[in-house]
Amino acid sequence: TTGDSVVVMVLNPSANTYKTTLTLPFNTMEGTSIVTTETTNAKKTAITLESETYQPIVNLEAYSVNTYIFVKKSPRTDIPEIDETAESLFEDNFTLYGASCIPQGWRAKYEDGTRTAGNYSLGPRIMGFSPEGEIQYAFYFRTGTSASGYVSYGEETNSRLYLEPGNYTLTYSTVGWKKNPTVVCYVQTTKNKNIKMLSSTPKYYVSSNGSSVRITQTTDKTLDFEITEADNYLLKWTISKASSDLNECLLGNVKLVRHEDSGETSIISLGQNNDQLNSSDAPTYDIFGRKVTTLKKNTIYIRNGKKFLVK
Length: 311
Description:
The chain is an all-beta fold. It has no helices and 26 strands. Strands 7, 12, 13, 16, 19, 20 and 22 form a 7-stranded mixed beta sheet that branches. It is globular.
């Protein structure tokens, strides 16, 4: 996709002819199809639709390779427009790690103490669900009756979240566990000074996990905030202490972006500490904040708070 057009390729390896519905990131009324079959080679045909839609229906001939190029007519009203000036700094949907662990950089506090990166079969940890649901992997965290519990990223000294001055947007999804507890999201300094907070209650909950459990709905939240001083920061989600038993919740689809006005692309580093940000030996991360040791060609990485391209 280029913003004003999108290319979709569909293969039909069978001897039957089908109709199928495509889903586009925008509404369209026109396009072009390029079809190759056993008897035709790259046959080009103009597509004209009677009304605007983001789900055009197309015909797939037998044993065919079909390429469709659709032109944008208007934005979809059911999804927000993409901010072309936004830069993705940190994203974690937990699929990289799988279930029964706490990933590097994350921390969970609960009634029995604090957990950091490692493998865990019970208590706060990544839980797995059906891949057909809205969330396949989510961070389960909880609190008891004695004190509030939380899950955070950026507290560990070997996985800092370094942000430069600018405007940011944090998005995430929550699902209650057995009930719907109130969750408060904080952006904080490493000294626990609040930069911004957002309180919300999940609208939906589940009571079990596993590959057969499908999460069909999530509560999706957006927190906009401004950083005025370059430093290490924390992302934290808390649950207030329970009046009885436990308050429990699932967190997923965490994403942090910075909105760029100048078009420059430097900003984040997850480092050992602030001194290492100016070191040539500082650790290197991919654009999703994951620490890497092997660099690949034609890939963007982050070191010392700056992006660079390996050619």
